């Protein structure tokens, strides 16, 4: 049994006992989180597809840790003008362990 959820503007295919990395969610490690935006649920070969969401379906998980992604460098240079700009960015991420898919 798996589901497709939407969080942080992205879609994730999840099943029980999986870990996913999503955009930053509020909460500390060990807290429970519920995803109610379920786009699709598959159970025993039969798929329920929502329009846009599946009614009554949710995915429950537990926050494992709050982390940060790798550093991404944005470098811009204008040739022959002695002009350049360098910026670094690290995205805040949350690692979530999926505990249950409720159809």
TrEMBL record:
Q: Does the keyword Ribosomal protein apply?
A: yes
Q: Which residue stretches, if any, does this entry annotate as coiled coil?
A: none
Where are its TM segments located? none
Q: Which Pfam families match?
A: Ribosomal_L21p (PF00829)
Q: Which UniProt keywords apply?
A: Ribonucleoprotein, Ribosomal protein, RNA-binding, rRNA-binding
A cellular component annotation (GO) from this entry: ribosome
Look up keyword Oxidoreductase and say if it applies. Answer: no
Subunit field text: Part of the 50S ribosomal subunit. Contacts protein L20.
What function is annotated for this protein?
A: This protein binds to 23S rRNA in the presence of protein L20.
**HAMAP family, from UniProt?**
Ribosomal_bL21 (MF_01363)
The entry sums up its family as follows:
Belongs to the bacterial ribosomal protein bL21 family.
- The name on file for this protein is Large ribosomal subunit protein bL21
